[in-house]
Amino acid sequence: MKVAAANLQHPLIRPVVIDARDGFSPDEIAVMVVITSPALRALRAQRGVARAQLLQAGLLPNPQLSASFDRVDARGDPTLVNGDSLGVSWDVTALLAHGDVKAAARATADALDLSIAWQEWQASQEARMRAFRLWSLEQRLPWARDVESDRAEALEETRRAVQQRLSPAPDLTPANDAWRRAQADRLALEQQILVDRSALNLALGQPVDEPLQLHLDDGFPALPENALAQALDGLPTRRLDLAALKLGYASQEATLRAAVKAQFPRLDVSLSRARDTSDVHTHSIGVTLDLPLFDRGQGQIAVARATRQQLFEEYVARVAEARSEVGQIIAQITATRAELGAIDATLPALEQLAASFARALAGHSVTPAAYRDARDTLATRRIEQSQLQQSLLELEVGLETVTGQPLLNRRVAAASP
Question: Do you know which Gene3D superfamilies this protein is assigned to (predicted)?
């Protein structure tokens, strides 16, 4: 695995050095998925079929050899001899479309290579996104447990107060609802962690319950002012699926040319040597020409032309879709970063408030309930911050995915618990 990852040759995925001593980074997991994924390995097996088809397209038809023997009946003229003939023929018109047929097969094989590379890129990016999500969920889980614990304590205090007739019984309902929501949030986090870890292990070809340790050193840089223009510049070239569609169009163009050239009537040229029963030797050259009275290849030409137009329209639609998707993701990144900045600005004050309440509680200046409320507010805001960080990471991985362009100099700090 380490050797394959360090020597990976891919148009979009860069080789990495895998070091599992401190866990796996999202980039390491992305490369490992490309190498080990059973689904991708089965997909890459299609390359052998395409290369075999390319080999077949480069072969010319075999010549045909014919021979005959005429034996003289013994009761016939004794001056007659046995006759024989030997001839060879070949379809000359195969040369007309040979170059186009081979070009079509080569373009198809190259398009398949790009299509497989694009699916590998998609799979690697999905694995990176899951790794970022899993890391973020694991960061939030301790805070979710703290919130659940605080609300469980609040519920127990309310229950005791009701039993001692210090609080009315209806106070139990909101306290119980708050605790159940916190418990449901914690259970949902644990379930999502299990789902994402199982999905990553499946992509890596590992048992679903195999422990997977992650570490995150880097994040993503801030987008430049002209991020949209940079992302759209050269998009059809960077997107391997669009490049594969262009090669598919080129393959169909060559197929159409081959179909047009196939309209030329089939021409077989033959050479033969013969000896008849009178012992007369002859050498002859023959030509066989099809008469295109009914079938002139109109159907094949129409199919090839319609398929070419379909590929063109699909390419135009995919380019427009990709450009629109890039614009939407960049807009979402901008909005998410603004929202995250607003939450980041409130955290220092909440942290100071929680710390002051902790000191006041030690001096018996505030009630435990007030301190719990301050802690609960801080933990809830940290959870919101982590959720936005996760959304931002997923959006930026999505931007990489749709543009086919990895972002450089990633750097984001983990939030402190």
Answer: Outer membrane efflux proteins (OEP)
* Sign (positive or negative) of CA dihedral 387, 393, 395, 398: negative
Pairwise CA distance, residues 292 & 66, whole Å: 26
CA dihedral 37, 390, 26, 117 (to 10 degrees): 50
- 417 residues of the chain, pLDDT tens digit each: 888 888 888 888 888 888 877 778 888 888 888 988 888 888 888 888 888 888 888 888 888 898 988 887 766 677 778 888 888 988 888 888 888 888 988 998 999 999 999 999 999 999 888 888 888 898 899 989 988 998 898 888 888 888 887 778 888 888 899 899 999 999 999 999 999 888 888 888 778 777 778 877 655 556 666 777 878 888 888 889 999 999 999 999 998 888 888 788 888 888 888 887 777 888 888 888 887 777 777 888 899 899 999 999 999 999 999 999 999 998 998 899 899 999 999 999 999 998 998 888 888 888 888 888 888 889 889 999 989 988 988 888 888 889 887 654 343 333 333
Residue 364: Cβ within 10 Å count: 7
pTM of the complete model: 0.76
Cα 414-392-397 angle, rounded to 5 deg: 100
Query: Tokens for 313?
Result: 């329209």
All structural domains of the chain, each given as residue ranges with its CATH number in brackets, are 2-403 (1.20.1600.10)
